[in-house]
Amino acid sequence: MANQSLLNFNATLTNGSFKLMSMYSSDSCNFYYIDVISISAYLVCPPPTIYFFSISNTCYDICPIRSYTASTGYQCLSCAYDCYICSSETSCSLCFAGKFPVIGGCCNVSNCAEVITNNIENTTTCISCLDEFILTSTNLCVCPSTTWLITDHCTNVVGCLSTIRTNGTTKCISCKQHYNLRLNLCTCVVGFKAQDGSDACIEICGDGLLFASPCDDGNLIDGDGCSSTCSI
Questions:
Q1: Cα(161)–Cα(158) distance, rounded to whole angstroms?
Q2: Worst-scoring range by mean pLDDT, 34-48, 66-80, 107-121?
């Protein structure tokens, strides 16, 4: 990327507006673009380095990484502090490691949709979440009560292993071991039952069906060779 040292040139205001001016060098007759970044000074960048970046005090032909081209004024302006590539101060396409682009800048809060960025204090605050999540008082995004997070989505289907979200609705698409999926619900397969206090299906003892237990004689009577807990 070409760059040139900054040339200073003073100019006056015309009717309260900045005046775009041109000049020629005394030796090579090169044309220079002159624009302003403040109310009191004009800046000169020789072609093709027509964009001035005040952070590095340098002229560029293309605005460098961590900056974007201003809509007016032949300037490069800084991205948000944690953004690597941006098209405006609040529109980032590539963030630094550990963060991802959202509306307003970059964020490291899972399932956040929008942030407010403070470039002075170098902080970001999540202010809204993706549609199925709720924002807590500590600016985190969590699933609503009675639901839990499965593969990036909130669900209340016990035994669900993976989910998909379409048209604003989350559906369970697969279940854990010993579950069958039917009508977006996970139910234990024959010979198994839901274990209290968990989402696991455990083998039924005493039904005469043997899967992983040491024995199952079809009853829960002790002393007949297979105990009431299906052990020998």
A1: 9
A2: 34-48
% of the chain surpassing 70 pLDDT: 81
| First and final C-alpha spacing in the chain | 79
pLDDT score at 197: 80
- CB-based contact 5:57 (threshold 8 Å): no
User: For 31-184, where are the E strands, in sequence order?
Assistant: 31-36, 42-45, 51-53, 58-60, 67-69, 75-78, 83-88, 91-95, 100-102, 105-107, 112-118, 123-129, 134-135, 141-142, 148-150, 153-155, 160-166, 169-175, 179-182
How does pLDDT run across 81-135, given as a tens digit for each residue?
Answer: 999 999 998 899 999 989 999 999 999 999 999 999 998 899 999 999 999 999 9
Distance, CA of 66 to CA of 214 (rounded, Å): 65
Q: Concatenate the DSSP letters of all residues of 19-69 into one string.
A: --EEEE-TTT--EEEEEESSSS-EEEE-TT--EEETTTTEEESSPPTTEEE
Distance CA 23, CA 46 (A): 10
pLDDT for residue 171: 94
> Which whole-number Å values give the CA distances from 130 to 112, 142, 152, 179, in the listed order?
6, 10, 11, 30
Find residue 147's DSSP bridge partners.
none
Q: Which residues pair with 45 in a beta bridge?
A: 33
Q: Which residues pair with 91 in a beta bridge?
A: 88
